[in-house]
Write a structure and sequence with these properties.
Elements (H helix, E strand, L loop, with lengths): L11 H25 L6 H13 L2 E2 H8 L3 H13 L3 E4 L9 E4 L1 H23 L3 H28 L1
Antiparallel strand pairs: 1-3, 2-3
Helix pairs in contact: 1-5, 3-4
């Protein structure tokens, strides 16, 4: 369908290519906080901590499924997080085969510091944008999140 200026709209594939290219700065800024975290928390461990903070206490098997890894690999990753004092494992007395995981106070503190670094970095960039551009960015990210969630739900139904 032509636009008011008689230019055809880009295809979905073209839009995806442009979006990926434009998102690169956002991803670099997002990842930058990992470099400032002391001591450094590897991305996979950050993802596990974030899942546990968002979902609360989880069984190891549920965490592995959400993390997208097999339970034995997730367990080894959790060994490192537990050794660092960032998560705790709990094994119920009535079922010694279950392992429940949750974020410790130190893990929450480190995630909060990490989030604060990200907010500071993003605020610096947003300050350079007009209010209209800020609103457009937020609106676009919200629409992207909704579409991404819908796609994930469709994929889960098909699995």
């Amino acid at each position: 369908m032509p636009t008011p200026f008689n230019k055809p709209l880009p295809s979905v594939s073209q839009m995806a290519g442009r979006a990926v290219a434009e998102a690169e700065a956002l991803v670099r800024l997002w990842d930058r906080a990992e470099d400032w975290t002391t001591p450094r928390i590897p991305p996979a461990q950050l993802k596990v901590l974030s899942i546990l903070r968002q979902r609360g206490s989880l069984k190891l098997s549920a965490l592995a499924a959400e993390f997208g890894a097999i339970p034995s690999s997730t367990s080894r990753l959790c060994d490192r997080l537990e050794a660092s004092g960032l998560i705790r494992r709990e094994i119920p007395r009535n079922n010694r085969r279950e392992v429940w995981l949750s974020v410790t106070l130190e893990g929450s503190r480190r995630l909060d510091a990490f989030d604060a670094t990200r907010r500071t970095d993003f605020s610096a960039v947003l300050d350079l944008m007009s209010p209209d551009a800020q609103s457009a960015l937020l609106e676009g990210l919200q629409a992207f999140t909704m579409a991404s969630t819908e796609l994930q739900e469709q994929e889960q139904l098909q699995a």
